[in-house]
UniProtKB/TrEMBL annotation:
Key word Heme present: yes
Native source species: Tahibacter amnicola
Protein known as: Cytochrome P450
Family under the similarity heading: Belongs to the cytochrome P450 family.
Record keywords, A-Z: Heme, Iron, Metal-binding, Monooxygenase, Oxidoreductase
Residue ranges with Low complexity bias: 1-11
Record-linked InterPro entries: Cyt_P450, Cyt_P450_B, Cyt_P450_CS, Cyt_P450_sf
Length: 427
C-alpha cells in the first residue's frame, strides 16, 4: 500500500524518526490507529489491543478503514468478492492520491498482490508451479548449507548483528538461486529493493516517493537484462519457467515478468528477514522459551508458527470494496480501502486466549495466525518462508548453547514490514 497524506502539524505531534517520512497525525482518541505515539516502534501491540477493544472497525482520518480483530480480518481475507486493485477505488482522496502516484511512474508493477481474477488466477497459477511441497523440500539442503556457513562465521566472530550476519543474506541467496539469476551487482540490488519495499508503507515525503520511483527504474533495467541473459542461457529454475511460459502463449508480458521477479525479491526476501530477526529476538527475550526449544528441538516447526503469530513479518494488507460491505456492524461503501491489521489479529485474545501477548512455542493453535494472509491471496511463498525460518533458527539455537542478546535491538521504524535493523547477539 502506498498512501500519501497531508496533515496540519501541531506542537503535540510526535515526529517519526525513521521510516518513510510520512507526516505525523494529530493526537487521536483511544483505539484510533496512530503509529506515531511513543513506543510504537518497539511495541505496537498495546496499541493494537486498544484498537481491538475500542474501535475494531474504524474509518480513519487517513481515508481508509482499519479492521483489527481476528474474526473480521479472517473474513475479509477469505472473501473473494473483495478487490486488491487500487483501480477499483471510488472517487475521493484515496483515488486522487493513487492516480497522482502512478501518473509519472515509468514502471507499472503488475503482480499477484495487486491484481484480481482473471489476471490474478493466471499469474498465481504460473508462479505457483515452483512453490510445490516437493520443490521446497528440494531446497532445504541448500538452505542448510548457507545457514551453516553463516553460523561458522558467527562462531569465529563471537558477537555479530544477526540481521547482517544471517537474517538478511540468507533469503536473498535462496531467492536468487531459485530464480537462477545471473551474476549481478548484489549489493546494488539489495539497496534498490530496500528502497522499493518502502512503497508498502504509508508514504508522504516527496523525496521518498522520488527515491522509490528511481529504484523502480533501476530495478526494471536490471531485471530486463537478467531476462535477456536467461533467454540465451535457460536452466532448471523459476526465471526460465516464467520466460518459457510467456513464450508458449500464456501472454505474460515483459512488464509482468519484471513485476513477478521483483515481487519474489521483495516478498520472498524481506518477510523472511523479519521472520528470522523477530523470531530470534522474541526467543531470546523469553529465556524459558529459549530453554524449552533447546531441550525440545522438535518444537521448531510449531515455534516458527508462534514466531509468525507473536511478531508478524507483515502487519497490514489491503482489500477494496466493490459493493457496500458489512463487517463488524459497519457498512463500508463501495470503492473504499480496508486495511486488515494482521499484527493486531494475531494477538487477539478472543482467539488465542488471555495469554495472547505471551510467547509460547508449544501453543496448540499457533497456526491460526494470519501472517501469510488467507483465501485467494494466501502467500505462495509461505512454505518456503517457514522452511527457511525453521532451518535458520533451529540450527542457530542448536549450534550455540550460550546464544544471547548483547545489546539493544534497533527497529526499522516501519509500520507494515516491521522488523529489526540491528539485533546484537553473542555466542
Amino acid at each position: 500500500m502506498t498512501v500519501t497524506t497531508e496533515t496540519t502539524k501541531t506542537t503535540q505531534e510526535i515526529e517519526k524518526p525513521q521510516g518513510t517520512g510520512m507526516p505525523s497525525l494529530p493526537p487521536m482518541p483511544p483505539g484510533v490507529f496512530n503509529p506515531f505515539q511513543p513506543g510504537f516502534d518497539e511495541n505496537p501491540y498495546d496499541h493494537y489491543r486498544e484498537m481491538r477493544d475500542f474501535q475494531p472497525v474504524q474509518r480513519h482520518p487517513m481515508g481508509v478503514w482499519f479492521v483489527s480483530r481476528h474474526a473480521e480480518v479472517s473474513t475479509i481475507l477469505r472473501d473473494a468478492r473483495l478487490s486488491v486493485s487500487e483501480l477499483n477505488l471510488g472517487d475521493g482522496p484515496m483515488r486522487d492520491q493513487y492516480e497522482a502516484l502512478i501518473a509519472d511512474a515509468p514502471v507499472k508493477l503488475v503482480t499477484i498482490m495487486n491484481t484480481d481474477p482473471p489476471d490474478h488466477t493466471r499469474l498465481r497459477s504460473l508462479v505457483g508451479k515452483v512453490f510445490t511441497p516437493r520443490s521446497i523440500a528440494a531446497l532445504e539442503p541448500m538452505v542448510a548449507q548457507h545457514v551453516d556457513a553463516a553460523l561458522d562465521r558467527i562462531a569465529d566472530a563471537g558477537s555479530v548483528n544477526l540481521i547482517e550476519a544471517l537474517a538478511f543474506p540468507l533469503p536473498f541467496a535462496v531467492i536468487s538461486a531459485m530464480l537462477g539469476m545471473p551474476e549481478t551487482d548484489h549489493k546494488r540490488l539489495l539497496e534498490l529493493t530496500e528502497t522499493l519495499v518502502m512503497a508498502l508503507e504509508p508514504v508522504g515525503d516527496p523525496q521518498v516517493m522520488k527515491a522509490i520511483v528511481r529504484a523502480e527504474v533501476a530495478l526494471d533495467a536490471m531485471m530486463r537484462e537478467a531476462i535477456a541473459w536467461k533467454r540465451n542461457n535457460p536452466g532448471d529454475d523459476l526465471l526460465t519457467a516464467l520466460i518459457q511460459a510467456e513464450q508458449h502463449g500464456d501472454l505474460l508480458t515483459d512488464d509482468e515478468l519484471v513485476s513477478q521477479i521483483l515481487l519474489l525479491y521483495v516478498a520472498g526476501h524481506h518477510t523472511t528477514v523479519n521472520l528470522i530477526g523477530n523470531g530470534v529476538t522474541a526467543l531470546l527475550r523469553h529465556p524459558d522459551q529459549h530453554a524449552l526449544l533447546r531441550s525440545n528441538p522438535d518444537l521448531i516447526g510449531n515455534a516458527v508458527e508462534e514466531f509468525l503469530r507473536y511478531d508478524s513479518p507483515i502487519h497490514q494488507t489491503r482489500r477494496i470494496t466493490l459493493a457496500p460491505y458489512q463487517v463488524g456492524g459497519h457498512e463500508i461503501p463501495a470503492g473504499e480501502m480496508m486495511i486488515a491489521c494482521l499484527g493486531a489479529a494475531n494477538r487477539d485474545e478472543r482467539v488465542f486466549g488471555p495469554d495472547a501477548d505471551m510467547l509460547k512455542i508449544d501453543r496448540e493453535h499457533a497456526r491460526q495466525h494470519v501472517s501469510f494472509s488467507l483465501g485467494p491471496h494466501h502467500c505462495l511463498g509461505s512454505a518456503l518462508g517457514r522452511m527457511e525460518g525453521r532451518v535458520a533458527i533451529g540450527r542457530l539455537v542448536s549450534r550455540f548453547p550460550k546464544l544471547a542478546l548483547s545489546g539493544p535491538v534497533r527497529w526499522n521504524g516501519r509500520m507494515n514490514l516491521r522488523g529489526a535493523t540491528e539485533i546484537p547477539i553473542s555466542v
